Amino acid sequence: MATVKQPPPVHEKEQPKSIAAIVWTECEKIMLRVFDAKPLPPTFPRNLLMELYVARTILFASFTLGIRAGGYSCLYSPARQIFGSFIVFMFTYVFLPLLGANIAYLFKKDKLTLYEYRVSMIVWAFLCGTFSTISNIHYALSDYGAPNYFMPVLVGLTAHLIGNRFDNNRKALVGLSVGSAVLVSLSMLLMTSGLSIGAFFSLSVCSVNAIVALQLMIYDLVLDGPGASANASMTHVVGVIIIMINFLIVVRLTGTYLEDPGRNDVARSSPLHAALSA
């Protein structure tokens, strides 16, 4: 009896996902990480958490220098006149985040040395700050409270010091770490008579962003396990993106629109404190 050859199985090609589907999937992953309340493992590299916050502070300083540089008319005028506000906005909040993710990817794949990665990240953070100002050049922030530069370091320091006691209670660990920074910031606002609707709103946004940032850092360190490093590339990229979003929200919702950007020079001469509070 002749055997009948079976046709080879047909493997259907996986349909490429749309950009919207990819973005939605990544957002779901981030939300799961943010709301993760599992206890920390005994081998959690707590010392690296503080190092991550120190590295983040350096990137925030570069971001702030960019914020200042973007306020010069020799930069924002040509950019907006040549490319237009829409293209500048898309470049700031779409292209630059993708560029940061690409830098992190190249470093993870050993395509960049540690030195090249650090320099690239500092320059990238500076560009993020510069174009954040250029994109929002018509908005003046006159209702601001005391500076919050210390918030990231204070969050990291508190998590480092009290962490051993709250390894089994992630909610308490995150709440106390971020809460300590919020309490100090609120105290400074009261001491300097800077408590206002704008300042309180800014502090609230900063607090939410700080919780997100801390949870993502913890996730990365737990995921890397014994091989964890303070050079967690994507963690730093996400940190800068968070302060970009923080800056955008605070400026657009609490800032005053000015038709002439030149009138915004006084407001821009002071550091934009909330940008450093993620």
Automatic annotation (TrEMBL):
Keyword Transmembrane helix: yes
Entry keywords, A to Z: Membrane, Transmembrane, Transmembrane helix
Transmembrane stretches, start-end: 48-70, 82-107, 119-140, 146-163, 172-191, 197-222, 234-255
Stated name of the protein: Bax inhibitor-1 family protein
Species: Caenorhabditis elegans
